[in-house]
């Protein structure tokens, strides 16, 4: 049986590194994309079991990306990250389904638990 895959889409290398450590420590395979554009291609080709998506990114932000992700895979669980807590309301107003809104800085233990709950 192959490991479940978590795709991290974030333009900050330090966040991708931290999330990779968390994801691999709990036994999953981590895929990384440094932009939403690269991430969208990976959603199509790699079929992740969970996506962790930052909102604030250049070129295409997470709000645009989540709408495109839903056209590719309507059911893949998505956690959205943001340093701006008001973005949770913006996501709700878009009417796009996400599994979880995770404010930055995030609690690593909570995030680990949620990843396991959602994709186990």
TrEMBL record:
Listed name of the protein: Sporulation initiation phosphotransferase F
PROSITE patterns hit by this protein: RESPONSE_REGULATORY (PS50110)
One Pfam family recorded for the sequence: Response_reg
UniProt cross-references to SMART domains, sorted A to Z: REC (SM00448)
GO BP term (any one): phosphorelay signal transduction system
InterPro entries from the UniProt entry: CheY-like_superfamily (IPR011006), Sig_transdc_resp-reg_receiver (IPR001789), ST_Response_Regulator (IPR052048)
SUPFAM superfamilies: CheY-like
Span of domain Response regulatory: 5-119
Alphabetic keyword roster: Phosphoprotein
Modified residues (4-aspartylphosphate): 54
